[in-house]
Amino acid sequence: MLRKTEEIQVTPDNPFTEDKLQRRRPVENMAALISTITQPFVLAVDGRWGTGKTVFAHMLRAQLQSRGHPCIYFNAWENDFVADPMVAFLGEIDAAIKSKALKLPPKAAARKKWRSARQKGEVVLRAAAPLAVRILSQGIIDAPRISEALEKLAGEALDGYPSQKKQMESFRESLQGFVDAVGESAENQRLPVVLIIDELDRCRPTFALELLEQVKHLFSVRGMVFVLAIDLQQLSSMAKAVYGPEMDGRGYLRRFIDLTYELPQPDLAAYCQHVIDDLELPTFFSPRQNGVEDAEHLLSTVTGMAEVFQLSLRALEQCLTEINIVLRTTPPSHLSLVLLTSFLITLRAWNADLYHQFAEGKIGAGQLLSGIPALANSPYFQGRDHDTYMTACLYAFSGMQGEAEARIEERKATMDDSDRTDHERRLAQSELESLVPLTKHHMTTGLRLRALRTVLSRIQAATEYVVSVPEE
Prior knowledge:
The protein is 60% helix and 6% strand. The protein is mainly alpha-helical. The protein folds into two domains: 24-105 and 184-262, Rossmann fold (3-Layer(aba) Sandwich); 268-468, no CATH class. A five-stranded parallel sheet has the order 2-3-4-1-5, with helices on both faces. Helix 11 (268-278) packs across helix 13, helix 14 packs antiparallel against helix 15 (338-350) and helix 14 (313-328) packs across helix 21.
C-alpha cells in the first residue's frame, strides 16, 4: 500500500488517545501552570520544524478547554495573507464566538463587551491604515494630487497622534472588560483567556514580527495568555532578515516572550514503530522470507540514524514513507536489502552531498563512514550486531572496486592480531560473519554494484513519488 502517514489525531474529549509523542505530562503541566497566571503573559513552546509543535498545541487547547479555560487556536500561517495581523486576530475571535468554539458566560455582558472591543479595534485599524491605502480609497491617481494628499495625510497623522494613542488605550480597556467577563467561571474563579498561536515561523517575516509586536502592544491585558508554538531559531533569523544581520535576534524576541519551554525529544523508537504500523509494514513483512529480521533491521536502523542525524519527526516520517515505497516496489523474488535502503534514505535526508558521492562511486564505504563522526558515539550502534551488519552491507555494496575484499582481509587480520582487545576481535568476527556471505551471494563486484544501482533507482523513484504527493 503506497500512502503517507496519517496525522496524529487529537480529540477534544480525550486528547491523549494517540499520544505517540509522549506529550501528556508536559501538556498537563503547562495547562496547570497557565491556570495560575493572572498577568498579561506570553509563553513560547520552542521546537524545531517538524518536532510536533502543532500536535502539542492541539493537545494543550483540548486540555485547557476540559479545565474550563476559554481558549482559541490561531494558525498564523493560514492568516498571513492579510496585511495587518490585528485583522486576523479580531476576525478569529469573532468567528470563535459565533461558532461557539469560544464559550461565553450566559450573561449578556461578555457579548456586549466584545462588540465594544471589536468596534474600537476597527477604529484603531482605520487610523493605522497605510497612507497609500488611504490615498487609493479617495480615488486619487495623478501624481500632483498624490503629493498633495501625502502632505495632507502626513500632517493629519501627526495631529492625530494623541487621538490615535487614546484609541489604542480605549481598545485595550474594552478588551480587558471582555477578558474579565469571559474568564469568570461558574465557581467565581477567574481563568485566563488563552490564545494559542501556531505556525508563526512559517509566515512572512514582516507579518510574523508585526504579529508579535501587536501581541505586546495591543493585546497585552490582564488575564490574557498567549502561547506561541514556534521555532525560536527560525524567528531569530526572521528578525535579522527584517532588521539587519547585526540584530540580536534572540534578544529581540525576549522583549515579547516571558517564558520559554523547550519541547522535549520524544522516544524515537516508539514513534518510528507508530509510523511503521501506520504504513502497515508489519503486514508487508509477515509473509516474506526473513520478514521478522527485516522488520527488526528497519526499526533499529531508522531509529538509530534518526538519532545520529538529528532528524526531525517530519523528516523521519518522510524517510519511512520513501522506505515503504522502495520495499513495496521490490519484487518478492529480489533481495529487499532493508538495512541498506534504510541507511541510504536517512543519509540523504541528513546530507544529500555525501549520499550522492557514495551513490556515484566517488567515495567508498570507508570514506562514507568516516564522514559521519556521530555514528561512532551513538548508543544505537556502538558494538551492536546491527552496527557490524550495517557496516558489512556498506562495504559489500560499495561502488569502489575491491573495497569489500580489502575489508575482509583487514577484518581477518584484526581477528588474528593478539594485540587487539577481545572486544575488537569480536566486532571483526561479527562483521565478517555478515560480510563474507554477502560478497559470496553476489559474487563479483559488478553484480554487487548492479544490486546497489537497483536500490538507488528505487530510492530516486520513491523520492519523486513523495514530492509529487501534495500536502493535505
